[in-house]
Every structure is written in C-alpha cells, then in structure tokens.
C-alpha cells in the first residue's frame, strides 16, 4: 500500500485535511511520495532492502506494516497539528497549514528535515494551547533581512520566536562540561548569525532549542543545563520524548522540557519516583 493520500487519511487525518486543501497541493504531495516510493523500490530490487529516512512517508510506510512506534508517532504529530490549528485563526492559520505541508514533503536522498518543521509546529502548539499566546505570523523578517520562525503576541505584547534544532552525538560527549561547551558554541553561533548587525529590536525575541539524539544518555550531565538559565533570550531545551505505559506497554509521545525529562529518569533510576 503506497497511496500517499490514503495512508495520510488512515493514519494522520488532520495531515490529510491539510494536504487535501487543493488539487495542486495533492498533486505536489503525491508526486513527492511517488518519487520516494520509486527510490525505495529501486533500492529493494538492487540490494534487497532500502535505507530508511526520517520523513513522514517512511513513517506512513512503517505504520502500514503495523509498526506500533510509527503509528503512535504519526498520531502524536497529527494531534499536535490539530491543537496548533485549532488555536490559530486568519492568515496565520493559512501560513501554519503551509508549514504542515512543507513538513510532509521534506525529505530527500541525502537528508530529511521534517523533524525540524515538526519541532516548530510542536513549539507553536505549546505556546498557543498552554501559554495562551496568539500566533500572528509564520516567519517574520528582521531589520538585517534574516527571518525568525514566528511572531506571537499576548496581552498586546509581541515577541519573535526562533526554534533551533540541535542534533548531538553522545559518543563525543564525555561529561557535563563537554555538553555545556557543545550547546554553548551552537547557540552563540546561531544567535550571532540571526541577530548580526541588529543593535535594538522593537519587539522581544526568544530562541527555543530542541534537542535530537539519545537524550536519556545525558542523565548524568543534567547540571549542564543550569548554565543556560542565565541567558534570558534562550528558553528551556525541549525534546520529543517516547514513553512506554507501565500498565499495558503502549508507546506514547510527548513534547516537553529536556531537564524535566532527565530529572524523571534520574529519580526513577534512584528509586525516588
């Protein structure tokens, strides 16, 4: 089964609605997914297998093969999108739907970027549903020509948001100082690049870092995150976490704080939770 629209309708009905908003969008998504299916088929014929990608299509394919983790992650993505759209109106909602479509077709032979777009949607979902913020626009141009991911507002006060995805390799980190140095270097580079040449902004801005990797392995490095609490324009590090329900063994996902996740892991390991 490799009909992209049917798979979306079955496993991610909200994504399906976003994809099905126009004939042009359907054609665009279908063509992209047919391209991926063709590359998979070619690899299977040549090598007997294909290299999996981090993209929505491969999640759909795995879900159709009855892989629980893929089905549950698609459901989590779908519900995150639903929550974000339900709390957004007007032109911002249309822009958000375009971002959802971009997420669905973000994959290629070398690197997939769908997770970066999903992180942006997950951040907005948190802000509009739990923080009572209003999404004003997707992407906002800065005076230096660079763009921030979102403009939000609350009680008449506007802020710019940049979601910064950071992949890490645990094997290259030997302690808290290594992690702190790695994250600090990445954030300083990002801030300097994004805000280059800007002396004063008329609105506030915040950078929201999202970590990707074996985060549970950082449990002994948790003190590294204390350093970043001093940086006012950088929020808590966020992550997509996978959980297993203790009662029935069901897999579930959540988007939340890295530090809170690691604290729970540490307490469970120490037997204090």
In words, what does this structure look like?
This protein is α+β, with helices and mostly antiparallel strands and 273 residues long. The protein has two domains: 1-112, no CATH class; 133-273. Helix content is 48%, strand content 18%. The protein contains nine helices and six strands, in the order αααααααβββαβββα. It has helices spanning 4-11, 13-19, 23-47, 56-64, 68-86, 90-104, 114-129, 176-194, 258-270, and strands spanning 134-141, 147-154, 157-167, 204-212, 238-244, 251-257. Strands 1-2-3-4 form a four-stranded mixed β-sheet, with helices on both faces. α8 links the parallel β3 and β4 (204-212). α6 (90-104) runs antiparallel to α7 (114-129). The longest helix has 25 residues, at 23-47.
Helix/strand layout:
Layout: H1 4-11, H2 13-19, H3 23-47, H4 56-64, H5 68-86, H6 90-104, H7 114-129, E1 134-141, E2 147-154, E3 157-167, H8 176-194, E4 204-212, E5 238-244, E6 251-257, H9 258-270
Parallel strand pairs: 3-4
Antiparallel strand pairs: 1-2, 2-3, 5-6
